[in-house]
Amino acid sequence: MTANKKLLMLPGDGIGPEVSAVVSRVIDWFAKRRQVSFDVSDGLVGGASYDKHGTPLTDETLADAMTADAVLFGAIGGPKWDTIDFSLRPERALLKLRKEMGLFANLRPAVVFPALADASSLKPELVSGLDLMIVRELTGGIYFGEPRGIEDLGWGERRGFNTLEYTTKEIRRVGRVAFELARKRGNRVCSVDKSNVLESTLLWREEMTKLGEKEFPDVELSHMLADNAAMQLVRDPKQFDVMVTTNMFGDILSDCAAMLTGSLGMLPSASLGAEENGRIPALYEPVHGSAPDIAGKDMANPVAMLSSFSMMLRYSFDLQEDADLIDNAISALLSSGLRTADIMQEGKAKVSTSVLTDAMIRELDKQAA
Ligand code: NAD
Questions:
Q1: Are residue 127 and residue 15 in the same domain, yes or no?
Q2: Is 227 assigned a catalytic role?
Q3: Rounded Cα gap, residues 120 and 117, in angstroms
Q4: Is 194 marked active-site?
Q5: Which of 166, 203, 338, 368 is the most core-located residue (most Cβ within 10 A)?
Q6: Which of 136, 139, 75 is nearest to 104 (CA)?
Q7: Atom of ligand 1 nearest to the CA of 300
Q8: How far away, in angstroms, is 297 Cα from ligand 1 center?
């Protein structure tokens, strides 16, 4: 048995609990078949927590998240809570978790399984086999810079303003995450900025260059302007290995890259904080929301959640072989023609979440045999 790691599951609302239940079955499988086990606890978050405790995130759940080795988060929100006070909305829970856990690096992989290359809006040959990782700075930049606001200038004029700023420390710590990741992948980092017009991102470029030369001379570093990066993502996405960029550019470019893969139900993510006493705070979650339109109908695609769990095995627990097992099983299921409704294609078999889950367990058995 591996030493037990503390895993906190926060299923949340809508399809969150449904896709979390799929991961729970896979966790049971790992304990039985691979002697890999975790101390799993769970908690309420979002609307589910609001209904029971009057707040989307209780102090106890936050404390559990702060001490867990990794948090696996489902999805939150839904029409039921759309009219409550802004400060109590389900979404506040995620913002608070990110802030309190200091999650400054957001990892958004865009992977296209060959079996789904037809589902992309780009030509299959451009995306088939795509495996790109975008690292977005998550707690700095223009979304947080001060001063900010809208002021009245009088005479019927108003002025809206925000501040884009980055410090050496903020740039280096997210840069390190990108370089380290590249070492485990294709060994290439592309840093994206607008150093031609924004001083704060000229600093970004200078610091990335220094960091690369000093600490990661073995990793190939290139730079690209954000407008060109947007163009290159749809022209030739396979040229990238790891892309690292600021909060706002990352927000936009990661959604653009996500769509290359076809469906929201396929996209995992990870958010990491700073190492302290050998522990890196980490939260893993699918990119999609709570999908109230299909909640409770046994229709949710669990792949984004399963891939989030696979990222957890890979990045928080360094269990590469076990993560590969999950990724390969997903790929095999898709190749065998099984599809949930969101990724259904002509000539394939449309299946429910539970049927896909049973098939996943059988496929894991096969892969591990
Ligand atoms: P959504 O991602 O929940 O759904 C968008 C569309 O994609 C829907 O048609 C949905 O059925 C489909 N979809 C999403 N995930 C799927 C899956 N795994 N399998 C099959 N189909 C899937 O986004 P939305 O509709 O804009 O938002 C719904 C609620 O989720 C809102 O309350 C929103 O605030 C919340 N939300 C939460 C998060 C989060 O928890 N991180 C993220 C985005 C939205």
A1: no
A2: yes
A3: 6
A4: yes
A5: 166
A6: 139
A7: 19
A8: 14
